[in-house]
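Exercise 7. Predict the joint structure of the components listed below.
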Amino acid sequence: MEPVFEFPLELAKRGPGSRVQRLHQQLRAAIIERRLIAGTRLPSTRRVAQAYGIARNTVIAAYDLLMAEGFIVTRAGAAAEVANVATQTGMSGRKRQPRLAPRPPAMDWRKAGPAEATERSSITRGFELGVPEHRWFPSDVWRRALMRASSPALADAFGYPAPEGRPLLRAAIAQHVGYARAVVCTDNDVVVTSGAQQAFDLLARVLVTRGQTKVAVEDPGYPPLRAAMSAAGAQLVPICVDEQGLIVDRLPPDVRIVCVTPSHQFPTGVAMSLARRRALLDFAQRHGAVIIEDDYDGEFRYGTQPLDALQMLDRNEKVVYVGTFSKSLFPALRLGYIVAPPWLIEALTEAKQSADNGGNVAIQEAVARLILDGDLARYTRRMRKRYARRRDTLLAAIDRDLGNWLIPVEPGAGIHLYARYRDRRQAQRIASLTAQYAAGARDAGSFLLERRASASASAGIAFGFGCIDEEEIEASIARLARAIGRA
Amino acid sequence: MEPVFEFPLELAKRGPGSRVQRLHQQLRAAIIERRLIAGTRLPSTRRVAQAYGIARNTVIAAYDLLMAEGFIVTRAGAAAEVANVATQTGMSGRKRQPRLAPRPPAMDWRKAGPAEATERSSITRGFELGVPEHRWFPSDVWRRALMRASSPALADAFGYPAPEGRPLLRAAIAQHVGYARAVVCTDNDVVVTSGAQQAFDLLARVLVTRGQTKVAVEDPGYPPLRAAMSAAGAQLVPICVDEQGLIVDRLPPDVRIVCVTPSHQFPTGVAMSLARRRALLDFAQRHGAVIIEDDYDGEFRYGTQPLDALQMLDRNEKVVYVGTFSKSLFPALRLGYIVAPPWLIEALTEAKQSADNGGNVAIQEAVARLILDGDLARYTRRMRKRYARRRDTLLAAIDRDLGNWLIPVEPGAGIHLYARYRDRRQAQRIASLTAQYAAGARDAGSFLLERRASASASAGIAFGFGCIDEEEIEASIARLARAIGRA
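Solution:
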């Protein structure tokens, strides 16, 4: 008997279900996977029956099922044909789809820059902001921790997790922020999140009443935080920053939430002064506002300023502290946390439960081990030294090569450095050359919510030094300086 | 010189920062960690200076900093004392905290039952719903995959992930749902989520307009889905289910979203009939509604019903398919996915980005490997057989021992079995004994949104058989039968 023609399948003689079901399923799979493409004429039922040695009624029944499901079509007097499943599924009715809920502005600031050519997945990231070095990450230690954390002997590591986070990790985080950032808290004050972004999102869900709550944000500031607040229906109130941080005097009395980056303002790099910290805490106390402290890279401190977390000064349960392991370990981990006052914990736990019902258990367990065994502290210490060298190299290079155009701000913490324009009239030209010659570095303009005159005080460029080595820093800055000098 | 009294610290002679800073930080750490408790009188600055061999001014400066921060207090004429940091942070001002945003009803249905004593972290789960077996999970395969996925050689595994999911996993899921559930899709139609719960949450964000959008849900139905919809401000419209699934005729024409579990209704266990599936698709097409298909345990099918995913029949981009690895792998993984029509993908990606900026990369990569290497399919096949045996054992046991009171519904898929009350007047008595003698099993009443007469048609008890072996099934059902017979 001749082989079965255009049919790219062998009929399994055995298996679950009846022969009709098996034939039906195999034909359907072939159509879905495009092994049988649209328009292919199917052999007659008689021919299939003969070829496979099965009853013709079996084939007819299978064809009928396929027809009922729309996978094959028949025209009067013609053989059955494979239907155009892809077109039916992929193209029709686009106009008649229901309206989507109102959407907040897009938040992918990494793509937002005019000459930003960096792919998210690219390896060479140059001066990209907020991306730490991973070359010296202790992968062996991490993988061992991950192995232990996914041991089948860990009996409770398979079921549904506690939404607020694994107890061991909550305890480890409480210890970690106490040591590293002088944050005052116990295990019960910690809610584990999927990165700082989910912390913002959960806080927005819990604290923002749609269309009513005014949320003050630093301007320039961190776009993804604004996106989370907007998504929950907040009214954003941009507040200028100067060399002491957020200008507290400019807060309208009716803002209910104030979002700040006191350790290392994003992107202008200043640390909020003690006077401003006190003024902000006073403001919150007087007006019943909540302060969200985003401490995104405060672990890397360079000694000049003794300022710890703002949370430490809070005596009225006004400050919610948000931390992340994206900088101290790596971003792909997607692990962050909220240290919140007791009155917020239950609401945050419920919000987390509704949002995703808790995070991956093995990852949480492994990070807890890394903290409790001291590996995180060791790695942070090591990286602080390396980042300090990069910071110093970058400071010196900007001073030496770009001093005519930029005034670098010495960062007391973190993994990016900010440099102000000497002459705002040159800003656009320098920004455009920077985008071209110092990939990843960003003009603060892209972090502004309002383009107003007063913002000019903080106009400048942010250079990440998390994932660029000293040699490349010097070469890139020199190249940029030549380009600016030439133009 | 005498040792330094009540001071539980050694002053580090070297280290970052000045001596003042080091002393200040060590004292502060001691207070935060309660090594120095509230009320402890501090030794005089002179005494500390002598004990440590440092200048008295250094000690005075450190004390001043601690005082400024509120960690120590002084009273006129008395020595400095450690302040009550815990009280200040933990107790004050509870009344004056800002109001929280309106919260949806709590969703932790696992804790909701009247006699539900099961701890989330408990190991013995009896008839608990939605919890799969993990004893035969191929931990060695999984750990190898996880090792490969966290290799330092995987250059793009450290940075920020693509919010919509890792490309390899999106491709693997498209292949998996094509084979296993006949879902018609390509890689680009897949959005990876943190469990099915986040899928519901993202869909609610994107499709629900607060206070306006009517969302039809099965009644009885799955509480966490309702919680996600409520959190986004949906108006829930409960729709009865009968032995063919959701009663499509009862849908009001103005619902915009219809949420269904067509493979295995939660909790009543019926598969939606083909007629109802067609009617539902018609409804969506006529009224411009979207259907959310929650296929939470459809991988485990027992052969009697040839019904695949509802999505397969959709020709108008109306069905959004939600899948999860919580049942086919394990819940603590927190990995799920949405297969959405093209018009939804961009909005979902943005919502995911705002929600948590993407999931853990190593977990995604490892699951992709498990799928592509065929391990998931193998494991599913193996577990299907084991679950089938448990299902048969449970069916037979209920028939034999509880046949006077309950009519079991043969489940065509999934890992729980539903049994209807023969006599509704006995329902309460049986439910209460069930809670006592068959831990984890749940009366459908706890899944009802509306307690109305029409719901009585589906009144009964759901028994999970995911994590209970045959012996225990028989023993528990026999025990329950004795208790019911006795009472």
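Discussion. Residues 163 and 350 of chain B are 8 Å apart (CA to CA).
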